[in-house]
Amino acid sequence: MRKLLGVVALFLLPLAADAQTVTRTLGPEPGITVQGRGSVKVPVKALAFSAMARGNVDEAGALAALRAAGVVDPSMGPLGTTFSAANAMSVLRGTIPAASEAKLEKIGLAAADYVKQHPGIVIENISFAPRFDDCPATEEAARTAAFAEARRRAQAIAALAGLAIEGVTAVSENGGCPASDGQPFAGPGQGLDLGTLTATIGVNESVTFAAGPANGARRQPL
User: Are 115 and 122 in contact (CB under 8 A)?
Assistant: First the structure.
């Protein structure tokens, strides 16, 4: 019995300082997340043209009118995958090479004249989309500018916080070239300016930079 009590007393004694165990839970490494945007404006040399025509459109006459207005390789087809004779809707498409303000005006006048000559026909949603010689190169220039802007912002924030940028831990991007040549833009801050015949390719970068103490200083626990 005395032996058992001695063992119990031994376990109840406080541990020596060098035998104590301390458990510390560390949070995630500090990081700085910033947004950077870059854009490049480029001249548009050619445009993809499309318009919706409602009614019983004379295909041969419509395509002839488009050719006369300067549209190359015009085509006409039903909208979507179904066709209803009661509410016929057709899509007119083509390419405008060497685009100019005068050519766009000529197409608009041709559409107005066609409607006047064909009562019951309605032409709506005339749209233009740029065609590019090398959009990926323009996109890369916009991406480089966006990443540089993100790094500049992160470094400014880190300096105020007494930190230094140590690397990149995450990146997400949106914007850039359209999904395919001649398609409308879908990203923010992008678009076609018909007044100047220029297109803006924009890229947004959300970048998370790892950050540590500046000048090699030892990080203080929170």
Answer: yes
d(CA 59, CA 218): 77
Domains along the chain with CATH numbers: 27-43+134-215 (3.30.110.170), 46-131 (3.30.70.120)
pLDDT class of 82 with cuts at 50, 70, 90 = low
pTM to 2 decimal places: 0.68
Residue-wise pLDDT for 19-74, tens only, equals 333 223 333 556 899 999 999 999 999 999 899 888 888 889 889 999 999 999 99
CA-wise closest residue to 136 among 187, 192, 196, 181: 181
Which residues make Cβ contacts (< 8 Å) with residue 59, sequence separation at least 6?
Answer: 76, 90
What six digits make up the tokens of 25?
A: 């839970």
Q: How many CA atoms lie within 13 A of 16 on its CB side?
A: 2
Ramachandran category for residue 190: left, alpha or beta (phi over 0 → left; psi -120 to 50 → alpha): beta
Give me the pLDDT at residue 5, please.
Answer: 35
